[in-house]
Amino acid sequence: MAPSQTLVCAAVLALAVLQALASDTFIAVVYEHTVILPRTIHKVSPDDALALMNRNMDVLEGAIKEAAQQGARIIVTPEDGIYGWVFTRETIYPYLEDIPDPEVNWIPCTDPTRFGRAPVQERLSCMARNNSIYVVANIGDKKPCNSSDPKCPSDGRYQYNTDVVFDTEGKLVARYHKYNLFRQETQFNYPKEPEFITFETPFGKFGIFTCFDILFREPAVVLATELQVDTVLFPTAWMNVLPFLTAVEFHSAWAMGMGVNLLSANTHNTIMSMTGSGLFTPHGPAMYYYNSKTKEGRLLVAELSARPRLSPNYPAAVNWSSYATSVKNYSGENKTFPGAVRRDIFTFSELKHKAGNHTVCQKDLCCHLTYQMSNKSKDEVYVLGAFDGLHGSVIKYHWQICTLLKCKSTDLSTCGQPSETAQTKFAMFSLSGTFGTNYVFPEVLYSGVQLAPGEFEVLSDGRLQSKNGTSKPLLTVTLFGRCYEKDLPHPLRSFLFLHNKKRKQL
Ligand SMILES: CC(C)(CO)[C@@H](O)C(=O)NCCC(=O)NCCS
């Protein structure tokens, strides 16, 4: 055979083998872990730090074994799941390890000292290897630097909030440094550039990012649209915020809006309002958990499609403004009034009747609603709301929101305040808006912060509508739009940079 023929044969063979190994579906697990927190805010010894991390890893090991027994190929554990979040730069230091670039081909379980002391990576690697399962965890990376690097912090090291993935042999296959740090995370540095981390498996192409990242373009949207991942791994420590940003509500909406699977493992801490994990698909949640009452974590198992993408050009396949720009405004006699959802001033219009059509507009956004309530209770008020503007006090990013919302009480000044329960079911709703973006996330939230799997759909003309009415009372139906190109530059990135430089000069 000519060399070129041999090459072709090898390629064909390799493809055949890959196809035989590839599966249409796979079982995945996310574990909502109640993190055991350090008992002191003071700096501890490396041994004490490891002891605390081992207590958390003891619990995670139980979850990993259980996941493997249930046939899962991959398990996701939460952000800050091994040591918590109450730290300064100094006090987190004993918890950190140097995490190498996965291209070094390292199995910590079989070669634990190759890159210095790394007991956490060793144990995670062994848990993956001994149970033949991909393990996804969140730990801290430290990278020494010196004055030859003008951005090197004064204490001589970078510290990163880091996701790691170990494959079924225990090999480190992915390392991701969190790009969009949340405000209190001063123990960590921002990476200089966003990282777009992916890896291939027989059950699809995976991407990874963490928590606050999900609200921004880089790396989250780029992974889904340009790098075309099938499933996103998402360790998080998410603090629920009603009405639009509870964990299960927004994370399920992101999976639908982007047309990918999202495996979201949240930390469980009811005092911090952290609960809500799930295995979310483009068609809705396969499994989810929200419990603000118990202290217990929860293992969630579901079988997912390995190739869930609806089309290669999703989400552009949905024209979010098509319907809304084609209809006339339902103006009528409806008065509008302003109301605050936290600091954002929405334009609201009360749904006074049992059924009807409404339009409200703010700036460039007009929202249309057609609805029918099953019962119109005197004790409850619903509004249609619109918001088009910058959200956030420190980090400012642009939202366009259309929402059907239950007010906290019958007093209209409470519209937009958090409300967890409702009594009114809807026989139908259809919500649309004149969005200036392709990135719109459809949320439906029922009383008790419950999702509505299979009970609503998004049409290609951008309408979010019920299929057969709502099986439970409704808290909110929301089209959550993000205009990434109108976001302001991140103020904290440069602030922390200058801050570190100044500390160095002192
Ligand atoms: C929901 C949201 C965004 C509202 O401002 C906020 O409550 C939230 O949970 N942000 C992400 C939190 C995060 O990155 N945690 C990791 C370190 S504690």
UniProtKB/TrEMBL annotation:
<dbReference type="GO" id="GO:0017159">
    <property type="term" value="F:pantetheine hydrolase activity"/>
</dbReference>
<feature type="active site" description="Nucleophile">
    <location>
        <position position="211"/>
    </location>
</feature>
<dbReference type="InterPro" id="IPR012101">
    <property type="entry name" value="Biotinidase-like_euk"/>
</dbReference>
<dbReference type="InterPro" id="IPR003010">
    <property type="entry name" value="C-N_Hydrolase"/>
</dbReference>
<feature type="domain" description="CN hydrolase">
    <location>
        <begin position="31"/>
        <end position="306"/>
    </location>
</feature>
<protein>
    <recommendedName>
        <fullName>CN hydrolase domain-containing protein</fullName>
    </recommendedName>
</protein>
<dbReference type="Pfam" id="PF00795">
    <property type="entry name" value="CN_hydrolase"/>
</dbReference>
<feature type="active site" description="Proton donor">
    <location>
        <position position="178"/>
    </location>
</feature>
<feature type="signal peptide">
    <location>
        <begin position="1"/>
        <end position="22"/>
    </location>
</feature>
<dbReference type="GO" id="GO:0015939">
    <property type="term" value="P:pantothenate metabolic process"/>
</dbReference>
<dbReference type="InterPro" id="IPR036526">
    <property type="entry name" value="C-N_Hydrolase_sf"/>
</dbReference>
<comment type="similarity">
    <text>Belongs to the carbon-nitrogen hydrolase superfamily. BTD/VNN family.</text>
</comment>
<dbReference type="Pfam" id="PF19018">
    <property type="entry name" value="Vanin_C"/>
</dbReference>
<feature type="active site" description="Proton acceptor">
    <location>
        <position position="79"/>
    </location>
</feature>
<keyword id="KW-0378">Hydrolase</keyword>
<keyword id="KW-0732">Signal</keyword>
<dbReference type="InterPro" id="IPR043957">
    <property type="entry name" value="Vanin_C"/>
</dbReference>
<keyword id="KW-0325">Glycoprotein</keyword>
<dbReference type="InterPro" id="IPR040154">
    <property type="entry name" value="Biotinidase/VNN"/>
</dbReference>
